[in-house]
Every structure is written in C-alpha cells, then in structure tokens.
Please model this.
Amino acid sequence: MKVNCLYFSPTGGTKRVMDFMAEELPVDCWVDLSVRDFDYSQFSFDEKDVCLIAVPSYGGRVPGIVLERLRSMQVRGARAVLVAVYGNRHYDDTLLELRNEAVSSGFVVRAAVAALAEHSIVRQYAAGRPDEEDRKQLHELARKIKSSLEAEGECAQVSGADSEEEDEREPLIPGNMPYREYHGVPVKPKAGKACNKCGKCAQLCPVGAIPKDEPGSVEEEKCISCMRCVSVCPQHARKVNPIIIMATAKKLKNVCSERKENELFIGSQQ
Ligand SMILES: Cc1cc2nc3c(=O)[nH]c(=O)nc-3n(C[C@H](O)[C@H](O)[C@H](O)COP(=O)(O)O)c2cc1C
Model:
C-alpha cells in the first residue's frame, strides 16, 4: 500500500500531528493543500492508495478551500483516514463533513482521528500542543490504524473484498447534519509598521488574500483568517486586533480550558 498524506496546515499544528502519526505509519507522499494556483487535478488515487486527509477545524467545519482542492482530484476506491485537528474547543461536524465529501469524491473511509493542536487564533488554548503526551497517543492511534489497514489488505488479497464487507469497515463518525453554521470570523490580520514589504505573506497565503504588489494590505472578503501570514512573517509585522482576541478568549474560556484528548474512530476489524 502507498500512504499519501494530504494536509492543510496554515500555522503548522495539523502538520505536526501528521508528522507524529507518520513516525508509526510512514508516509510515502506528502501533498500540501495550501498552495495557491496549484493544479490539484493532477493527483489520482486508487485502491492501492491510502490517503491520510488532515485538516484544521474552523468553526467546527472543514475549511472550504480544502473541499474545493480535494474535489478536483481523481479518486477511485482509495482508502481514507480522516484527521480533524482542533484547538481545544471542539471539532463538531468537521469529521462528518470530511467523511461525506471524501465518500462523494470516491474514497472509502477506514478510520478517523480528532487531534489537538494549539489554537491558531487564541494561542493560550492547547498551547504547545501536540506535546509529548499527544505524541505517545498519536503513535498508539497510528499503530492501530496501520495494523487494521494491513489486515484488510491481506484479507482482500485472499478473499476479494465485497461491498458489504467494506461498509462494515467504515467507522461511525461523530457529527450532525445540517452541519454547524460557520460564516468565518472577524479576525483579519493587518500589517503594522514593521512590515518591510518582503512579500512572504502574499506568496504563502493559501487563498491569495494579500496582493503581491501591496503586501501590507489584505482583501478581507478573500481572507479565511487562517493566520498563516501572522505565523510566517519574518518581521512579526502581521497582527490581529488584540481586543478581538481577548474578547474571543474570554468567550471560549469555559469550553476551552480543560485539556481534551486525541480520539480514534475505527471500523470493525474482521
Ligand atoms: C478561522 C479559525 C477557526 C477555528 N475554529 C475552531 C473551532 O471551531 N474549534 C476549535 O477547537 N478550534 C478552532 N480553531 C483552531 C484550529 O482548529 C487549530 O488551531 C488548528 O490546529 C490550526 O491548524 P494549523 O496549525 O495546521 O493551521 C480555529 C482556527 C481558525 C484559524
């Protein structure tokens, strides 16, 4: 089996989770879903492929740009392991939405993981995560997923899998429909005086919200508040309004303060 990791990780938390999982479930091919103007339709995956699809949860949903990029790929029966990474509030319907999209693109879903990483807007929540304790948990989850995928591969070779067996192997994935409503957040980073117009933020913005010829500004209607520009700016010039962050932190205090743990959802292993 060839293991591919398709990931969207504007500030690196989702990628760190996947790096830890990959220490036990080695990845052959990494596909960064945050590259603007890249032709993702050149990717095709079939029964020989396993795709780990990893996304941050935004408002309990899958970031829309990820869905667009996944939809353009050619998929025929590749097995998927879904990973939703969240900042200690909740992932709500992220895994269910990702599951439904993956299935309609042609994947068969074999496992799902909800994992923790530092909240990329309100950084005091899940600060420093994934940490060493997470790493151990993610290793354990990855080992279970790997042995289940390998067992299924061997079983299919001996008997030839039929569709009913395949259904039983799909895990029950948490979430509700209609999905939680999410219309973005009013947090649009702006460049301060320290900006020297190097253009790194414009180059790396996943949605092209920062004009290349005017990197100090932002096209607010395009910005998805992913915080990549804040995290990549060498001058630390891009910032979000601290009053909004403080108000958001206060609002989230009750739901975010207690440490949450990584979870695995896996189908029946025959
Ligand atoms: C726009 C936005 C919305 C978010 N919404 C949620 C949320 O609903 N629940 C949650 O627990 N964390 C939420 N987070 C935190 C991220 O899911 C978390 O920090 C994730 O690790 C970011 O991934 P990255 O580091 O790969 O960019 C949100 C972050 C952003 C930027």
Q: What stands out?
A: The helical segments are 13-22, 64-71, 94-105, 132-159, 163-168, 200-204, 228-232, 242-256.
